[in-house]
Design a protein that fits this description.
207 residues, seven-stranded antiparallel sheet, three-stranded mixed sheet, 6 helices
């Protein structure tokens, strides 16, 4: 992904059309290799600084709804721009990154083309910028409304305590809430895991 003439066709299946020109303008100003990756369990996107003259790389998971893809893409570009401006020794989500991310997000809020619930959640999130949309539970809850997932899936917070559910091919019993995660026990090993309240799971009702 190094040819600017291909950027519109590359991003158009993944980003709302109202914001396509904005994202293309950012990528054209910043030398980067952009990849769309298979879904990863631990992260939505990733920035890797180039070494020994290599080009920087950004990767974002495929399969997200367009608004989640847009916000994650801007999150990763904030890493790249902050790295280029302030150097490699800054904290990953320190003040330099927070300021850069806020500047990239503000135009998509100001244009008025976002759904109102996402616009409101983004405005609130900028008051205290989180490390990612996943760590901002209120924003993630709103973004989940725009996912087109299987009807079998439900967020963990919506099922009752002691309910049985499956996640990542394992079966769990739902326990108590610990801040933004539930303490759950895997049935087979009896090990306990903290699972995010908005994790999408399959409830097992006939266990």
């Amino acid at each position: 992904m190094d040819n600017p003439s291909k950027y519109h066709s590359f991003f158009s299946p993944h980003i709302p059309p109202e914001f396509l020109n904005y994202v293309v303008s950012i990528i054209e100003k910043n030398a980067v290799r952009f990849k769309i990756s298979r879904p990863r369990k631990t992260k939505l996107g990733d920035f890797r600084a180039g070494r020994n003259g290599e080009m920087h790389q950004i990767s974002v998971n495929r399969g997200m709804n367009p608004y989640s893809f847009l916000i994650t893409t801007l999150h990763e570009f904030a890493h790249l721009i902050a790295h280029n401006k302030f150097g490699p020794k800054i904290q990953a989500h320190g003040q330099e990154w927070k300021n850069t991310y806020s500047k990239l997000i503000q135009p998509i809020i100001d244009c008025g083309d976002l759904p109102k619930d996402i616009e409101k959640s983004l405005l609130n999130s900028l008051i205290n910028v989180k490390a990612s949309s996943c760590s901002d539970v209120k924003l993630q809850r709103v973004l989940l409304k725009y996912e087109t997932q299987s009807k079998e899936l439900i967020t963990l917070e919506k099922i009752e305590k002691n309910s049985i559910f499956s996640l990542n091919n394992k079966v769990f019993i739902k326990g108590d809430l610990r801040r933004t995660r539930f303490l759950c026990q895997e049935k087979k090993s009896r090990r306990e895991y903290l699972i995010h309240a908005l994790a999408q799971v399959i409830e097992i009702k006939n266990e």
